[in-house]
Write a structure and sequence with these properties.
The chain is an alpha+beta fold. It has one domain: Alpha-Beta Plaits (2-Layer Sandwich). The protein has 7 helices and 4 strands, in the order E-H-H-E-H-H-E-H-H-E-H. Strands 2-3-1-4 form a 4-stranded antiparallel beta sheet. The chain binds inosine-5'-diphosphate and magnesium ion. The site of inosine-5'-diphosphate has 9 residues, from loops.
Length: 138
């Protein structure tokens, strides 16, 4: 069993897509082990996207992700990290195939509705950044 950090970004919450996104992960058979609605601080957003701090879009990305509430979640299941990334779809809109969350609901490179951890190490870091131990089910 693997756990992954999933976040509906501010555009997804504003567009009332949180329920649809949660429904997809539930339908797939994943188990929800943590969930909260939070407006990210700049500090948390900068830490979350630290790997992109050199990129030209970093400032805009931090502005975007702190612009409103996000739904922070941890989902558990077999190969949950790769499975969720597959369900989310590619970052580049033209590569986000129909049937994926991004492929069905967005064609914007930045406002792309959802984040999912990309590897076991980042999943562990992100779960620790967004949740305390006590907020996760056993
Ligand atoms: P990912 O969310 O698919 O893992 P990353 O490359 O890790 O994609 O980028 C993190 C986030 O930064 C993306 O989800 C998107 O919101 C934003 N982003 C990535 N590349 C660009 C870009 O070239 N222009 C604007 N925003 C970008
Ligand atoms: Mg990424």
């Amino acid at each position: 069993m693997e756990r992954t950090y999933i976040m509906v970004k501010p555009d997804g919450v504003a567009r009332r897509l949180s329920g649809e996104i949660i429904r997809r992960f539930e339908n797939r058979g994943l188990r929800l082990v943590a969930l909260k609605l939070v407006v990210p601080t700049r500090e948390t957003a900068e830490a979350h996207y630290a790997v992109h701090s050199d990129k030209p879009f970093f400032g805009e990305l931090v502005d975007f992700v702190t612009s409103g509430p996000v739904v922070a979640m941890v989902w558990e299941g077999n190969d949950a990290i790769a499975l969720c990334r597959q369900m989310i779809g590619a970052t580049k809109p033209i590569n986000a195939t129909p049937g994926t969350i991004r492929g069905d609901y967005t064609c914007d490179m930045m406002s792309n509705l959802i984040h999912g951890s990309d590897a076991p190490e980042t999943a562990a870091e992100e779960m620790a950044l967004w949740f305390s131990e006590g907020e996760l089910l056993a």
